[in-house]
Every structure is written in structure tokens, then in C-alpha cells.
Amino acid sequence: MHLCKVKLIILKKDGTHHLIIKDTKEADATVHYYSTLFHELTHSTGHESRTGRIKKNKEKFGVRNEYAFEELVAELGSVLFGQQFGIEKTIRDNHVQYLNSWIKALKHDYTLVGDALAQSQKAVDYFQPVKQ
């Protein structure tokens, strides 16, 4: 199985985010590359200067639960981005822990997936050109 190496660099002077993804030349790398890229792009929109999602969710869920929720937002964002580009998302082995945490959280809050999907859509919309 192929995993992409991802490094997100945040330059604090101007709030600019730089996403660097290094990939290998494996045959299945393209889907994983874009899946990872879309996941990280979704994360990048959570900053206060963009959607402000992360700060709001920390206040709502607490730091530990916000992390799991943010990962759900990023995974759903990756799926939404993938749909736009015809790339089908696959569940990898390292997603099992996340899936289990989301299942556990759903037992306490059935609105979790709907809220995460709405926030994912806002993240994807952030990258859409403004129609005039």
C-alpha cells in the first residue's frame, strides 16, 4: 500500500499556507496523491482567516474531540473534491481508527456527520471561483 508524505508549512507573518506533498512513482500513487492533497486542502480552510472552523469546533467539542471531527471534515472534503475531478476515494487501513472514533461519536451526537458534511462543503466551496 502506498502512503503519501505530507508536510504542511504555515508562514505566520502573512497567514500563507504551503502544502508540500512528496510522492513515489508507484502505479496506484495518483489516487492516493490526490486523496491526500484534497484532505490537506480541506484542513487548510479551517484557519481563522478562511472559514474559522477549527477555532469554533474546539470551543464546541474540546480539543480532543475537535481533532476527530476535523479529520472527518477533511475526509469528507477529500471525497467532495474527488467527485469534482472524477477520483474515487478508497478507505485505507489507517482510516480504521478514525472510523471507529466517528462511530463512537455518532452514538452521542447523530448530527455529527451532517455537520461535518456541511463544513466540508464550505471548505470545498472556498476553492471555487467566485461567479460574478
Which terms summarize this structure?
132 residues; 5 helices; 2 strands; 58% helix; disordered N terminus
What is the count of distinct domains?
A: 1
In total, the number of strands is: 2
| Strands ordered across the widest β-sheet | 1-2
What form results from the Cα inertia axes?
globular
> Structural class of the secondary structure composition?
mainly alpha
Describe what you observe in this structure.
By secondary structure, this protein is mainly alpha-helical. It has one domain. 58% of the residues lie in helices and 11% in strands. It is built from five helices and two strands; from the N terminus they run E-E-H-H-H-H-H. Strands 1-2 form a two-stranded antiparallel sheet. The protein is globular, with a radius of gyration of 15 Å. 21% of the residues are buried. The N terminus is likely disordered.
Describe the secondary structure blueprint for this structure:
Elements: E1 5-11, E2 16-22, H1 29-44, H2 53-61, H3 63-85, H4 96-108, H5 112-126
Antiparallel strand pairs: 1-2
Question: Would you summarize the structure shown here?
Answer:
This protein is mainly alpha-helical and 132 residues long.
